[in-house]
Amino acid sequence: xxxxxxxxxxxxxxxxxxxxxxxxxxxxxxxxxxxxxxxxxxxxxxxxxxxxxxxxxxxxxxxxxxxxxxxxxxxxxxxxxxxxxxxxxxxxxxxxxxxxxxxxxxxxxxxxxxxxxxxxxxxxxxxxxxxxxxxxxxxxxxxxxxxxxxxxxxxxxxxxxxxxxxxxxxxxxxxxxxxxxxxxxxxxxxxxxxxxxxxxxxxxxxxxxxxxxxxxxxxxxxxxxxxxxxxxxxxxxxxxxxxxxxxxxxxxxxxxxxxxxxxxxxxxxxxxxxxxxxxxxxxxxxxxxxxxxxxxxxxxxxxxxxxxxxxxxxxxxxxxxxxxxxxxxxxxxxxxxxxxxxxxxxxxxxxxxxxxxxxxxxxxxxxxxxxxxxxxxxxxxxxxxxxxxxxxxxxxxxxxxxxxxxxxxxxxxxxxxxxxxxxxxxxxxxxxxxxxxxxxxxxxxxxxxxxxxxxxxxxxxxxxxxxxxxxxxxxxxxxxxxxxxxxxxxxxxxxxxxxxxxxxxxxxxxxxxxxxxxxxxxxxxxxxxxxxxxxxxxxxxxxxxxxxxxxxxxxxxxxxxxxxxxxxxxxxxxxxxxxxxxxxxxxxxxxxxxxxxxxxxxxxxxxxxxx
Length: 611
Ligand code: ADP
Ligand code: MG
Prior knowledge:
Layout: E1 5-8, H1 16-27, H2 30-50, E2 63-68, E3 73-78, H3 85-109, H4 113-116, E4 131-139, E5 147-152, E6 157-163, E7 169-176, H5 186-197, E8 204-206, E9 209-210, H6 227-237, E10 246-252, E11 258-264, E12 278-282, E13 285-288, E14 303-307, H7 317-321, H8 324-347, H9 349-369, H10 371-377, E15 382-385, E16 390-392, H11 393-404, E17 407-411, H12 413-416, H13 419-426, E18 432-433, H14 437-449, E19 454-457, H15 483-494, E20 500-505, E21 514-517, H16 520-528, H17 534-540, E22 544-549, H18 553-563, H19 567-584, H20 590-610
Parallel strand pairs: 2-8, 12-14, 17-18, 17-19, 20-22
Antiparallel strand pairs: 1-6, 2-3, 3-7, 4-5, 4-7, 5-6, 8-9, 10-11, 11-14, 12-13, 15-16, 15-18, 21-22
C-alpha cells in the first residue's frame, strides 16, 4: 500500500452523529437514494464529456448494487466520471462533510426539529448512519490518474491512499452496522430502487437484475413523444386508473427549469379527487408524493410528475414555502393549465363539453381559489341550461338578458322539473343547471364578478314575466274588496303556520293554484353549509312565502265555498292547496308528509260520505 494521508474533518461534526442517527431512524432508507443519485450524476457528467473527449473504458453505463451477507457489506458501484485524489479531498472531505455540518447547524437552530428530521438532504454523508465503516475506491476517467482509496470508520476521521484500480468509476462499500442488516436483502434493495430511482436514466442492477424503468418521459422533447407513450406512462404510474382525459407536458428552461407531465384523471368518485397524485422529482430522483407547496391545492386532483432540478426538494417544507421560486413555479403551472383549457374549448368544444363532467369540479374550485385562474378560464366555464344544452355564462346572458331583466335564473336537477321551471318555460325563459355543491359558492363569486347580473334561484321569487300585472282583480263586494283581496284574506286566516307569509298574484298560467317561495339568502346559506343534514334543510324552509294564484279556478272555487256554502270545506281545500305547493317545493318534513297524508285521506273520505 502506498503512503496514507490522514485527517480529521472538523470538531463540530462530532456531535452530529446522535442527531443524524435519530433522523435516519425515521427515514433511514434515503441513503440509497443519495448514493445512487450520486452515481447517476457521475455517469451524466461523463456522458456530457463524451461528446467532446475520448476516453477508455467504453460507454456501457450502469450502476450496480451488490452485497456480501457474511461480511455484511453493501456495494454501490458506477462506471461514471470517478474522482482524482484532489477531487476526493474537495468533494468528499470538504463539500459532502460541509453539507453534514450544515445539517447539524440547522438542526440545532430549528424550532421544529421533527420537520428538519427527514427533510434535509445529507448526500453522501447519509451512508454513515447505516455503516460502521465506509470505503470509496475511485478512479477518474482521466487516463493518467491513479486510483484512490478513501476510508473512514468514524465519519469524522478519514484516510486517503492511492491504489491500483483499473476500472474507471467509483465503488462505495458500506460495512453495515448491526441495526442495518435489512439492506443485505435483494427485495428490500429492489423496492427502494423502484421507489426512489425508477426513472434515473441509467440502468441500475441489484444483484445482477435490472431494477429500474429508466425513461423519464417528462424529460423528452414533447414534440417527439407519441400519444401512446403518454398513455403507457400514465398506466405505469397509476395502474388501474383507466385512461386519463388529457394531459399537459410541461417543459420550461427559463427562468427556472421545470419538466413534468400532468394528467387530468377521470374522477370516478369524489374520494379520488382528494388523492395526491403528483409525484415530485429532483433530477429524476423521486422526492415526494406531496406536491402541496408547489402546486395550488385545486390542482392536486391532477396526476403525474413534476421534476424541478434546481429546487432542493428534500429540504424542509417551510423553507420551500418561503422560496420565491416556488410561487413562480406554481403560477406557471396554473397558467399552463388554464391555457390548455381555453385552447381545448376553442379548438374542440364538443370534446371539451364531453369532458366537462370530469373536469368541472376542479375548474370551479380553481376559479374560487385563484384569481388569475378565474380570469383565465372564466370564458370557458359552461353550464347546462334548462334545454339541456351547454352554454357559457356570457352566451346565456346575451341570449336572455333582454327577456330576463337583470336576472340569471338557476336551478338544480330536481328544480328543473318543478312547477317553477314550468312557469318560466311557459314564458320562454331559461335557467342554468347547477349540479354540485360547489356551484353555490361559485354563483356567489360570479355575482360579485358580474355586477350587472343578478343570480336568482327559480323558486326564490317568481319571474316578472310569469305574473299577469294587468289581470282583472275581480268583482268588488259590499266591503269594497276585490276578489283578489278576499283570496288573500281567506288564505291568511286559514294558513296560520308560523313563519309563513301569504301573498297573492295573478299568474299567467292558471293551472298552478299556489307556489311556495324560498328566500334566496337562506337557501344559499343552507347549501353552502356542507355540514347540514336533511332535517336542518327542511327546517330552513320553515320561513317561506305562500304565493296564491288569484286566477286559478281552484282557488276561486275554494273562496266561494269559504265565503258561502261551506266554510269548513273551503278551509280544507286551502290547506290542500298549500300542501301541494309545499310538496312541489320538496319542502315537507317527514312529520308534515305524514300529517298531509292523513289529512288528505280524511278529506277524500268526507267528500265521499257527503255525496
Ligand atoms: P451533492 O450530490 O449534492 O453534490 P453529495 O454529498 O451527495 O452532494 O456528494 C458530494 C460530491 O461528491 C458530489 O458532488 C460529487 O462531486 C462527489 N461524488 C459523490 N459520489 C460520487 C460518485 N459516485 N462518483 C463521482 N463523484 C462522486
Ligand atoms: Mg448527492
